[in-house]
Amino acid sequence: MLNLVTYNNNSRKVFIDGYSLLIVAHANELEHEQLEYLDGFIIDTESVEFAREIIHQIRNNDFVAIALLPIFISSTHQLPKNIEIHADGVVSIELIGTYTQRITSIKKRINNLQAPKKATHQDFLKYKTLAYCYTRNTTLSPITSRQSIIGYEFPFISLLFKQTAIISLLKTFEELTQQKFLSFTLQDYVHLCKSCSSNYINFRECCPKCDSIDIKAHDMIHHFVCAHVAPEKDFKTEDGLECPKCDKQLRHIGIDYDKPSTIYSCNTCNHEFQNSNMKALCIDCSTEHELDELLEKSIGNYSLTQKGENEVLGHNKTAQNSNQKSIGSLSVPLFKILLKQEIQRVKATQCHSYFVSIQIKNEQLQLLNNDVKNELAKEINGIIQSYLKEADVLATKNYNCHYILLPETTENQLERLENIQYNLNKLLGDNLQQSNNEVIIQYEKIVPEKQVHNYTML
Fold this sequence. Notes:
The chain is built from 12 helices and 25 strands. By secondary structure, it is of the alpha+beta class. It folds into 3 domains: 3-187, no CATH class; 208-275, no CATH class; 319-454, 2-Layer Sandwich (Alpha-Beta Plaits), CATH 3.30.70.270. α3 links the parallel β5 and β6 (90-91).
């Protein structure tokens, strides 16, 4: 059932199947939200400028998990195709529940990502592009767009580059293709200005002698009887066409004469020539080019390769590191040490922090073999981690017992625990036959007077 909630800070959220989606009409509304606790966005504005600004701000977030969150556009408004291309669908807010499967798929794939801890700005943009392809399981296919200076716009990656850096965007694609992270299928060629990279080019015929564009084409006439060849203007009389060489009337083309070619005359320097020169003038910056000076770039469709998928999932690392990351949680002894340190920090700074215990009760769990239990623990950790901030700490005692440390957290920020509980119940319900699953989540505020051994849930 759909539940639309209006908060005191005028933010609007939709809660559906354990997911929380923020309804946004202006980019300023994003500044008042804790985006890491959201599962997606619904753009609700008829302004093309506002919609693009909202999408641009989300997709350029420094945290990959936020930048890749699902974005939908409310069907109440008709936005152009170059806005829709960056969203995950156009939906009716009342029917957003029909998109829960897509949200689940995207969120699950986001949780699988292994973002690089250290990377240059360019490498980070490459990673985000590959990650977008992976989380959407899609091909980056361009659309024609008059708003783009190259005439084409790509999903997602076009938001990461300014219009003035469009060559860098195309170079990024070239590098990812050379590295075998993306495969390429040609769709078109574009010819760009060597100065500003625009494809708003005017092609002009001009005089080869003085470069003037004030030229005029004249048909050449070949008189069959006397074999005289001259421009048509030399044959014209008041009565029609007459050969200036033999004075005979030319009445029927194909019988008396033909027009074998064309000749140009320049109205500036009076030069006559058979072939005109071609030049290209950039409308945006007025740079004039010879045709071979234009930058030719390939435009096409880019698909994620298996090597690219391995890159975003971190499979190129050692098996040991991969194992540790897949588990994604600390041991209980180490967790106790961090909890003790947090108690001291709370005592010194008077900040707010919470200790959380998650217990999963289901008799069928005990009957599973160890491999299945380990896989289930990884799935459970993945769900929990998707709602944690970078400073939060997760520890696993066993497959059905987990602990969380939430530093710098107030009580009104604990609503994410309800989402964790809902999604864990859904995971168990989808994978276990018994319906009497019970996920018990308890939390307790950390106070300086209480030592680690006094936390009975631990």
